[in-house]
Amino acid sequence: MNLYSLTLQQSTAINSAVAGSFSDNRANEILVAKERLLEIYKIDENGVPHIVASANVFGIIRTVQSFRLSGQSKDSIVVGSDSGKLSILEYDPKREKIIPIHSETFGKTGCRRIIPGQYVAVDPTGRALMIAAIERQKLVYVLTRDSSSHITISSPLEAHSTNSVVYSLTSIDVGLGNPQFACLELNHGAADKDSTGASAVAAEKQVVYYELDLGLNTVVKAKSEVVERSANLVIGVPAGASALNTLPGTSDAEMELLRNDGDNVSACTGDESPGGILVCSDGVVTFISPSERKFSVKIPRRRVVPEENTCLIVAHTKRKWKQMIFFLLQSEYGDLYILMFLKHTTPAAPSSSHLRTQAPKSQLVGIRLTYFDTLPSPSTSIAILRSGYLFAAAEYGEHVVYRFSSLDGELEEEARARPMLGDRRDGPLFFYPHTKLLRLQPMGTLPNNTPVTGIRVGSKETLLHGDEGWKKGEGRDRDRGRERDRDRTGGSSSSRVFEEGEEDEKGADADNVQLMELCGRGAHSKLKILRPGRSVNVLVTQQLLEKATGVWTVKIDHKEDSVHRYIIVSSDRPLGYTRRSGEGSSSSSSSSSSSSSKRKEVVIPKRTIVLRIDETIDQLDESSFVDDVQTLHVALLADDSILQIHTHGFRRIFSDQRVIDWDAKESTKDRDRDRDRDRDRRKDERSGLISSISPSIAHGVCNERQVVLNTRGGKLLYFELNTADVEDGASVPWTSGGQSQSQATSPSSSSSSSSLKGSGGVLQLVHSVQLDIDVTALAIGDVPNGALRFDYLAVAFANGTVGMVSLKKSSFWQRLSTLTVSQQATHISISNLAILTVSNEKTASSSSSSATSSGFSLSAQTWSYLCVGLSNGIFSRSAIDPSTGALADRRIRSLGTQPVRLSKIVADGNPAILALSSSPWLFMQNRNIKIAPGVGMSAGSVMPMVLERICTTHLDGAAPLSSSEFSEGCVAISGSSMIVLLIDTASPSPFTETFSQPLTFTPRKMIVLPPLQMPGKGGFTIASNKNGTHATVALIETDHAVLNPTDKQAMKETAMRNAIAVAEEANKRGKVKEEGEKGLKMVKEEDELNVKMEGTEVLNAKKDEAEDAMDVEDEEHPSGKELKIDEKQFAIREYDDKDFLSERMQLSSEEEDEDQDGNIFTSSASSSSSSSAARLRPVKPEDTALGQIAGQLGLPEALYGHPRCKTGLWASFIRLLRVPLLSNDSDGSSDSSTRNSSSSSRRGEKGSDQPLQPTIDVIEFPSDEAAFSLCHVQFQTRPADQHFLAVGTAKNLEFFPNRHCSEGIIHIYAIKLEEETRRVKVKKRRGHRHGNDDEDDEDDDSSSDDSSSDSSDSSSSDQRSSKAEYRTVTTVVEKLELVHSTVVDDVPYAIAPFKGRLLAGCGHALRVFDIGQKRLLNKCCNKKFPNCIVSISVLNDRIIVGDIAESFHIVRYRRDMNQIEICADTTVPRWTLSHTLLDYDTIAGCDRFGQFFVERLPADAQDMDEDPTGLGKGLLNGAPFKMEELCEYYLGEAATAMEKVTLRMQGEECLMYTTAVGGIGVMCPFKNRSEVGFFTKLEASLRELMTQVESPDERELAQSASDASSSASSTLSSGISLTKGVPLSIVGREHMSFRSSYIPVKGVIDGDLCEMYASMERRLQEQVADELEMTPVEIQQKIEEMRGRII
Question: pTM for this one?
Answer without folding.
Answer: 0.83
